[in-house]
Amino acid sequence: MGAIATEIKLDEAALSALRVAFRGELVRRGDPTYDERRKIWNGSIDRYPALLARCAGVADVIAAVKFARGTDLPVAVRSGGHSFPGLSTCDDGIVIDLSLMKGVRVDPKARTARVQAGVLLGELDRETQAFGLAVPAGIVTHTGLAGLTLGGGIGWLMRKYGLTVDQLLAVDMVTADGEFVKASESENPDLFWGIRGAGGNFGIITEFEFRLNPVGPIVLAGPIFWPMEESAKVLRFYRDWIADVPDELTTIVVHRRVPPLPAIPVEFHGKPVVAVIGCYAGSVEEGEKVIRPIKQFRAPFLDLCVPTPFLAHQSMFDSSFPQGWWYYFRSADLAELTDDVIDIIATRAPQMTSRLTAFPIFQLGGAIRRIGEDDTAFTGRRAGHTININATTASAAGFDEEREWSRSFWTALGPYHTGVYVNFLMNEGEDRIRQAYGAHKYDRLKALKRKYDPDNFFRINQNIPPN
Ligand SMILES: Cc1cc2nc3c(=O)[nH]c(=O)nc-3n(C[C@H](O)[C@H](O)[C@H](O)COP(=O)(O)OP(=O)(O)OC[C@H]3O[C@@H](n4cnc5c(N)ncnc54)[C@H](O)[C@@H]3O)c2cc1C
Description:
Helix 13 (430-437) crosses helix 14. The strands form 4 sheets. Strands 12, 13, 14, 15, 16, 17, 18, 19 and 20 form a 9-stranded antiparallel sheet that branches. The chain has a 5-stranded antiparallel sheet with strand order 5-6-10-8-9. The chain has a 4-stranded mixed sheet with strand order 1-2-4-3. Strand 5 and strand 6 (112-116) form a beta hairpin. By secondary structure, the chain is α+β, with helices and mostly antiparallel strands. It contains 14 helices and 20 strands. The chain has helices at residues 12-21, 34-38, 58-69, 121-129, 145-151, 158-161, 189-195, 231-242, 284-296, 310-314, 339-348, 399-412, 430-437, 439-452; strands spanning 25-28, 51-54, 75-78, 94-97, 104-107, 112-116, 133-134, 168-174, 180-184, 204-211, 213-214, 218-227, 249-257, 272-280, 302-303, 306-309, 326-334, 358-363, 385-393, 417-419. The two termini are 33 Å apart. The site of flavin-adenine dinucleotide (FAD) has 35 residues, from strand 3, helix 5 and strand 10. Flavin-adenine dinucleotide is lined by residues 41, 76-84, 87-88, 98, 117, 138-140, 143-144, 146-148, 150-155, 199-200, 204-205, 321, 423, 461.
């Protein structure tokens, strides 16, 4: 646990000047809301910033950057606060927090949306689904759109429509000097390339413009469950079946204990399972045909893959990942689910000890691959799967053991790693970040960093140092 180490002296005159016009909220140690505001999603991370600048708009962001620039304090940027390794907060520094910036404007005719940085995935879905549209994003609705997009963005619609970054048309950004810039294919294209995968290394994105895609509102989606001891058999059939399913279907395989959800009969709660969860982004009838083989190859003990509102499917995992539990993960991209990979997964999964742990294996491919590997900073478009070995406990009790399980499982898969999705990195050091982008892209990103943030002002992130 962190602790308040030293009392940080802020320049009171500069702070008063900032306060005069600031539309949002400035929160300091000792303020009544400080403890609530400083919390982030991962309960295992407990940091004590000197100041939280909760911005209400672009002018607040510019003012906060300029204020922070006048101090020597570290600066963290926060939108949804869902960074697993806690890269949206810091001890004794300044958090520039965009979570109050909630504007969403959908243009149903042009099929575009302008979205401010504080919007969460479920908030965006709510606005876009009113028009039968969606931005492909992640699988938990309380995740921040900003951090997710800036790393790439994988989720239920990705095989049909691509990653979240693949929908981006333009962004507004505040630089380390407090300058306002735009980026798109036609304006600052180098920056536009970099922010599509290399996170917040270059500045603070205040607004995104996305292309929208038709989805639902009803989709065929949900989990199909088998006992966990059948994992190897299920995974082998699954591997062969997904080899030629259409891009409308995205699946995720999850190993876990059945959560106590109202939709699940109580006699199954707590049972260790392997679940294949699908979402068919097309007609329900077509989806039924495509999904039938996996439902039939071996009778599942529970089949909840049925016509469902897309919005409901999107929130299916929400209660499995609440704010405040303790989380750790190790992740890797995998080319394919070979027999060896399957055997490792089937052996390691039952060794999880926490009843709260649930780890997903995402099926990639489809539209993700149709964009060139060098077209965006996001790396790993050729990967077949991303495995995210999540270790979850409610508190510190049992956390170390579960974390060890995750690390050891990940190490066992080492010979099969082909890369790693940058949003699924913990604090793993510069070599791992270089690996995530590959040496060539990493050098290109460094050059971009020298251009936009030569002092590495934005360094609390999956950092690409300028030199
Ligand atoms: C429960 C859960 C489920 C997830 N599911 C998925 C998933 O399905 N698909 C997927 O792709 N990822 C998923 N992720 C990973 C997720 O993409 C990252 O954790 C992401 O960073 C979260 O974004 P945020 O805005 O909530 O993060 P924050 O913690 O606020 O920020 C994360 C990082 O992004 C930077 N950043 C945030 N906002 C800005 C901004 N406006 N400008 C510049 N930099 C900024 C921060 O400085 C920090 O380095 C999940 C994470 C969690 C916790």
